[in-house]
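INFO  loader      accepted 1 record
INFO  loader      residues=523
INFO  predictor   begin
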Amino acid sequence: MSAPADTREIDVAIVGGGMAGALLARQLKRARPSLAVAVFEKATERSYKVGESLVEIAANHLVRRHRLSGYLYENHVAKNGLRYFFDDESRSTPLTELSEIGPINLPFHPAFQIDRARLETDLLKMIADLGVEVRTGVRVDGLELGEGGARHRFRAGDAASQQSYSARWLVDASGRAGLLAGEKDLRRPEAEHQVGAVWSRFRGVADVDELGSEEWRGRVRHTSRRLSTMHFWYPGYWFWVIPLRGGLTSVGVVGEVVRGRELRTAEGFRAFIREHRGLEELLAGAEMVDCGSFSQIAYGTSRFFSEDRWALTGEAATSADPLYSPGSDFIALENDFIADLIERDFAGDGAEEWSERLDLYERFMQFRHASAMLLYRGLYGGLGSFELMRLKWDLDIGCYYNLWVSPYMMDQHLDPRFLRRQLRMSPFVLQALTNFAELFRRVESHLREEGLYHRKNRGQFSYGLENIDFVTDVGTKRTRREVLEKTEEIFNQVLTDANRLLGEESPSDHRPLQSFMNEQPLL
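INFO  predictor   done
INFO  writer      dumping tokens
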């Protein structure tokens, strides 16, 4: 089929000008300025979005890959890690008496709280200055996906005019709308993890660093609580509190309780907040600026990348859960893989080698999504217990630094040998996560049955790194043996502490790494 005479031929078409799409365009143009890249965005102005918290992989992507550290520190908020607060059963404990897990120093590795609208507006200008064709206020339709090396064809425009395009590559960065998800039936619903979210921005939130006694402020060695992503934990749901530039604060709640329509309104959300004394102390005099919600957060995709030269990035592909802010980490990985595939395609890499890389990248992203979901499924019931979440903190954050952040900082995710090793281990990693999830559920049941669920939720404090003592080694060259030994150390500590909560002793000869080969629970 021949193209219309007025068809514009481009190298890469990116549908969606949000963070995922704009960052990919910037990455492509910086690596290969000669590429003809176009971004198509239906909105004319960038609006407020959730997903403001960037954790270490995403932050490293922006700082190292994009050289945006100066921009981020000047225009957004430096983040002081995660901070957890735990309440009593009646949700009536004063803020300064809530048990707490959180840092006592600024983080060794940078992270940020971003204003998504500001970031996306600035990125669109940056990529336009690099020579990317940026079209806003347009819709993409008439899509004809090429197969077997054929180019992709579509139209982009508004009610007044349409332009035909032909692209060698097409990348869907359209968010939850999912252009290719609909076109290729890629979206995979999440059957088990059924949670929603409601959120607002508030003006005039109290500064937590001004509250409490000198002793309470000094407990964190006078580092800033306010700059942390603060979490307020309850059985089955949790709140976030995130500071933004310009005097605004993002506040949201996630859980099955949010799926009801009543809570997903400004009035319902504000009333729900008032039922939680510690959180309400921060928001009592604050003004709600706006409100948004999702009735269901999580979903997957049957395909990230195709040999027919199309790909998905960001929420056009998958969504997991806001806890631990994995969305921007996934953007970093997906964009690195897409950019590498496109670069190798235009560099003329051999078809067999290129196809093998694509297959490795696809399988790794499927593994990455599956492993992320195992951190959430069936585990929301234990969120409200300080003792149980202290275990989950050690496992989840320890493994995040050891198994995910460190390899990313070394660009090992772009090494086929590393990916093959990861994929050989993936069934055992998934089994271990499944086993630990079952262990956490067992601890939760025991604490509830014994009436101990909330017993440590008042007056306790942990700085969170008591058992995560290798932060300064993250991103440095370590042997596989060192990584596995650290993994085993983390597993052993969590298992020992879990057994203590269960009133049992850990066998002295137990080796949790062997659970990778074991379909039975750890206990």
